[in-house]
């Protein structure tokens, strides 16, 4: 057989398989699932660029520290559990029927950082409800701090304190610690934990009063309560929307002018059979709204024992914001990875 001929030049590519973007000397190109980066510098420009990055790093660090102080002020002046609820609901809960990993914008690391810094602070504004602008700023600061810290370590290589291999290993380790979450499917992970720890049930029972199955059962009960409250809230709000539509229809048909007062109009509306059917659901929504969204209530001895092992008081994570080199940075060691639940005023 003869040799196959080869075409010289760039390989053929369809427009839909290619994307290109250029900013200054930087160019990023995607060929199918492969991404390539290239740069084209004029003589001396690269060295000038590196020196510019080095000069900006102290400014970036100061900016991060300023944002952390603003974040601590917000925590000090507002109910920390409300702040945690807003960022947790946004980043930890999603509809499994609509979830797509490629488009999901939730970041569990945002919640972990918020929990770390809140559990580290010993001053909180429990008597003050955060307004919408404060909640938005709180969420924005969390996102900006983690993003800026990422860029701080991306640019660390310009200092040339280590060789390239060590620098790359350090950077990847920091990024994984900050952003990467989830090492397996939950079902597989539970099976793995059982296989590893069940042979040590005697030790666990003696020193912690729990077996592997009891620990897993307690954690699953905690998860169940959180998910149920979130689902109850969503269902309640959906019913509120439906009732709003029913009320608008009722007013259009009956006419507000035919009632002596708005109270009489509401009373007549509440007497509708379809509205009375939803009354019990509204009572459940009221209970959810009046309480803390992610409050956990001990159910059974195993769950109570697990909660005791996994909970901490506000302020006990103090080292997170008093670390001398980087106070309040998301790269700091945090107690939340050993004790992720907060115990306060007799509640979890």
Summarize this structure briefly.
By secondary structure, the chain is mostly helical. The protein contains 13 helices and five strands. It folds into three domains: 14-42, no CATH class; 45-179, Helix Hairpins; 186-320 and 333-343.
Walk me through the structure.
The chain is mainly α and 348 residues long. It has 3 domains: 14-42, no CATH class; 45-179, Helix Hairpins (Orthogonal Bundle), CATH 1.10.287; 186-320 and 333-343. It is built from 13 helices and 5 strands. It has helices at residues 45-77, 80-92, 108-120, 132-154, 164-179, 186-197, 201-208, 212-254, 262-270, 273-277, 279-290, 301-310, 319-322, and strands at 18-23, 26-31, 34-39, 311-313, 341-343. The chain has a 3-stranded antiparallel beta sheet, with no helix packed on it. A two-stranded parallel sheet has the order 4-5. β4 (311-313), α13 and β5 (341-343) form a beta-alpha-beta unit. α4 (132-154) packs antiparallel against α5 and α8 packs across α11 (279-290). The protein is globular. It starts with 17 loop residues before the first strand and ends in a 5-residue tail after the last strand.
Give the tags.
disordered N terminus, single chain, Helix Hairpins, 348 residues
**Overall tally of structural domains:** 3
Global morphology: globular
| Percent range for β-strand residues | 5-15%
Low-confidence stretches: 1-7
The helix content is 55-70%
Biggest sheet, open or closed, and with what strands and sense? 3 strands, antiparallel
How far apart the termini lie comes to: 76 Å
Using only C-alpha atoms, the radius of gyration works out to 27 Å
């Amino acid at each position: 057989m003869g040799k196959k001929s080869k075409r010289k030049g760039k390989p053929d590519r369809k427009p839909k398989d290619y994307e290109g973007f250029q900013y200054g000397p930087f160019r990023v190109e995607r060929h199918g699932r492969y991404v390539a980066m290239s740069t084209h510098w004029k003589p001396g420009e690269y060295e000038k660029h590196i020196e510019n990055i080095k000069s900006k790093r102290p400014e970036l660090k100061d900016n991060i520290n300023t944002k952390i102080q603003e974040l601590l002020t917000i925590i000090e002046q507002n109910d920390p559990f409300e702040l945690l609820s807003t960022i947790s609901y946004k980043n930890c809960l999603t509809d499994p029927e609509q979830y797509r990993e490629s488009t999901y914008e939730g970041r569990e690391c945002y919640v972990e950082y918020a929990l770390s810094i809140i559990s580290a602070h010993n001053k909180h504004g429990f008597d003050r409800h955060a307004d919408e602008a404060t909640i938005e700023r709180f969420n924005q600061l969390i996102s900006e701090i983690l993003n800026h810290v990422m860029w701080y370590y991306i640019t660390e290589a310009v200092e040339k304190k280590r060789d390239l291999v060590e620098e790359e290993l350090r950077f990847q380790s920091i990024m994984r610690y900050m952003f990467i979450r989830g090492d397996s499917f939950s079902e597989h992970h539970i099976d793995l934990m059982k296989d590893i720890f069940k042979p040590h049930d005697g030790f666990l029972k003696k020193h912690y009063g729990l077996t592997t199955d009891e620990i897993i059962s307690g954690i699953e009960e905690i998860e169940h309560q959180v998910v149920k409250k979130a689902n109850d809230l969503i269902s309640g709000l959906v019913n509120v929307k439906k009732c709003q539509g029913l009320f608008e229809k009722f007013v259009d048909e009956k006419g507000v002018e035919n009632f002596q007062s708005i109270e009489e109009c509401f009373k007549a509306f509440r007497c509708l059979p379809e509205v009375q059917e939803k009354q019990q659901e509204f009572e459940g929504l009221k209970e959810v709204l009046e309480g803390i969204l992610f409050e956990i209530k001990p159910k059974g001895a195993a769950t109570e024992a697990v909660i005791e092992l996994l909970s901490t008081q506000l302020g006990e994570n103090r080292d997170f914001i008093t670390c001398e080199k980087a106070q309040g940075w998301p790269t700091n060691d945090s107690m939340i990875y050993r004790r992720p639940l907060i115990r306060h005023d007799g509640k979890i």
